[in-house]
Amino acid sequence: MTATVFVPGVPAPQGSARAFVVGKRAIVTGANPKTNPWRADVAAGVRAAIGEQIVHPTGAVAVEMRFVMPRRKSEPKRITPAHTRKPDLDKLARALLDAITGLVFTDDSQVTELLATKRAAAIGEQPGVLIRWAPTSVAALTLWPQEVAHA
Questions:
Q1: H-only helix segments in 1-55
Q2: What is the pTM of this model?
């Protein structure tokens, strides 16, 4: 099943985990308090898009995620500059993959192709993330054409 969904909101990065010991128990917490609400929003958006009939692929999955970050008020009005500031793209991707685990695939180790981008929102554009996924295999065509041949 190939599917595409846009989840509105301000994307939140995974952040680094922090661990400490209380008595004889280890406690692990995330460094970013906005991550869990963002992951819940993503999961709800994906669940709404695919319905209650969740079919987990047993093999490899290709995932595309295109993050649209909020535009700063100080950014130029005529152009949309690249989003070359925090949060890091890899941390945004980690949070999103964790949010869709159990909905799109059983385990994120099934993701064999990953395309992730981030950019600032155009004027009037809503921030969020566009997610696309499909089962894939080494022999099958993938979501994205090969752009670079082996040198």
A1: 35-50
A2: 0.80
